[in-house]
Design goal:
This protein is an all-alpha fold. The chain has helices at 2-30, 36-40, 54-67, 72-84, 86-108, 113-125, 130-135, 137-158, 178-181, 199-211, 217-234, 241-258, 261-267, 277-295, 297-313, 320-334, 348-368, 373-398.
């Protein structure tokens, strides 16, 4: 019966993954290049001249850095995708969605196929603005694409952080009983993970890319890497040179995006900056509150449910990695208080960090209560349906089925 249930779950999940990929692709095909996409397809300083080569992208981004904003790397990625054309960009967007889902599973140390489907479902279904953060090309470059690099950078550090207890089987269906999975009396597991090949070389450009991403996620992930370094020194674990190099490169990238001269130019055009200090504080407090109570609320609701189930009912520890991810999410949300504008799509990176914790806690639940797999699968199905409704409604309107 266990093997049969497992085969049914994995079979149905495989079908749902394929359906999700098809729906994502069709939705991307239906969303054209628009708004900022049209501007970034030109030389920026000369809107009549379209970009035609990689050197054109470099020239336009140099102008962008000094005259419009500091996110030169993310907008450089955007211009590369625009140069490839709509069809190639649509395929690449789907690939990056799948890659982000995979990185989320790796971060959560939950590599089951249902976890991959759950990651896909939550990235879309818990999204505050799915169209502008994933399907609008400029939004995809600024949030979908760059979050892959941010998570991969964070994973390089978190994998070096020991957790309490011994490692359990990755497949909850193969656990004999709950006592095998839970042993909090164990000391810190100091087993070092396998060294990533060539990390000393590629962690520097990865750190720069993670830091030079956007104004809230870059500094937040830098602080996360710094926290891992501090814990390694405090607990007398081995501190590798790449950890310091990556941290410094991420800091440099964060400074570059925040201190860009173009940010001053762009900020001067924000109407709210002309208001008094008290009114500005109110507006930013309102934006922060809206982000929690509206944009991030679905993800926080699912997270709260799993925290109560895992910590309150099953008495499982959240884990230091999850705590650091939650702190990183809190910092990425709080950092937007310094910005005069907090659009709903800017919560994408924070939402993905919460999804990592959600999947990690789901894995902890299944480690001790494999009979709850169907309940968690059902919750994921509801989130998946929510995401499919978004895309389905948009496609139906686009195709003229709904008027």
């Amino acid at each position: 019966m266990k093997n049969r249930s497992k085969k049914i779950m994995y079979g149905v999940t495989s079908v749902l993954v394929l359906v999700s990929i098809l729906v994502l692709y069709r939705t991307h095909r239906a969303v054209p290049f628009m708004m900022d996409d049209l501007w970034y397809s030109t030389m920026l300083f000369d809107e009549e001249t379209p970009i035609a080569s990689f050197s054109d992208i470099i020239k336009s981004q140099v102008w962008h850095y000094f005259n419009w904003g500091g996110r030169s790397l993310t907008h450089g990625i955007l211009q590369i995708t625009l140069l490839l054309g709509e069809h190639a960009a649509d395929i690449l967007n789907v690939v990056m969605t799948l890659l982000l889902s995979a990185v989320v599973c790796v971060m959560a140390r939950n590599k089951r196929l249902p976890a991959f489907w759950a990651a896909m479902s939550m990235i879309l279904g818990l999204n505050a603005n799915w169209k502008m953060s994933m399907f609008w090309q400029a939004g995809a470059a600024n949030y979908l694409y760059i979050t892959v690099f941010i998570l991969f950078f964070a994973w390089c550090y978190l994998r070096e952080l020991p957790e309490r207890g011994r490692k359990v089987s990755p497949d909850a269906f193969e656990l004999a009983n709950a006592s095998e999975a839970l042993d909090v009396s164990k000391p810190l597991d100091v087993h070092a993970p396998k060294r990533l090949w060539g990390i000393t070389l590629w962690i520097i450009p990865l750190g720069i890319l993670a830091g030079w991403s956007n104004e809230n996620m870059g500094p937040a992930v830098w602080l996360l890497s710094l926290a891992v370094i501090v814990l390694a020194v405090r607990e007398k674990h081995r501190l590798y040179s790449w950890m310091v190099l990556g941290n410094l490169s991420c800091l440099a990238g964060s400074i570059m995006v925040i201190m860009a001269p173009g940010n001053i130019v762009r900020s001067a055009r924000v109407e709210s900056n002309e208001y008094g200090l008290l009114w500005q504080c109110f507006l930013r407090g309102y934006a922060e509150s809206t982000a929690v109570t509206v944009h991030l609320f679905p993800a926080l609701l699912v997270l709260g449910f799993l925290v109560v189930l895992c910590k309150g009912v099953l008495k499982r520890e959240l884990g230091r990695r999850n705590v650091l991810l939650l702190i990183c999410a809190l910092l990425s949300w709080g950092a937007m208080a310094l910005s005069p504008h907090y659009p709903d799509r800017a919560t994408f990176g924070t939402m993905v960090l919460l999804v990592c914790v959600i999947l990690s806690l789901a894995g902890k639940v299944l480690d001790v209560r494999k009979d709850l797999a169907w309940m968690l699968w059902g919750v994921t199905a509801l989130i998946w349906l929510r995401g499919m409704y978004y895309c389905g409604e948009f496609l139906a309107i686009t195709w003229g089925w709904i008027r």
